[in-house]
Amino acid sequence: LSATDRMPFPERNRCLILMAFIHGFRASELLGLRLSDIDLAGRQLYIRRLKNGFSTCHPLLPDEYNVLKSWLRARKYLEKGADGDWLFLSLRRHPLSRQQFFYILREAGRLAELTIAPHPHMLRHACGYALADKGIDTR
């Protein structure tokens, strides 16, 4: 995640990558999040799962909560003229696209000097492995 500090909009990019990993999001699920899906006071996030998934509320973990608050503070500069209440916005104030997320993740991987080029679905699989290591059944 530290590689995001050397990229434009580090708060957004750090939040994107962390949330994708923690919740095992598909790219479309992550990019479909809206401000109204976030309950900061209750530290919860409503997740709409795709492909017959089970939509539910997830707790916001402490690190995730702090990173999300940091992004929301930075996001205020993009709100004027923004296209809807999407959580993740591009520099042009439009919802972030899957292609943009792919590029952000690939660039973060390059800056982190990873030997493989990461893609969004890798974070979903990494989440599954992390949960399995903790003995949590994801089926």
From TrEMBL:
Entry's Gene Ontology BP terms: DNA integration; DNA recombination
InterPro entries for this protein: DNA_brk_join_enz, Integrase-like_cat_sf, Integrase_catalytic
Domain Tyr recombinase: 1-139
A GO term for molecular function: DNA binding
Alphabetical list of SUPFAM superfamilies matching this protein: DNA breaking-rejoining enzymes
This protein's UniProt keywords: DNA recombination
Pfam families, alphabetized: Phage_integrase (PF00589)
Name the record gives this protein: Tyrosine-type recombinase/integrase
Source organism: Salmonella enterica subsp. diarizonae serovar 48:i:z
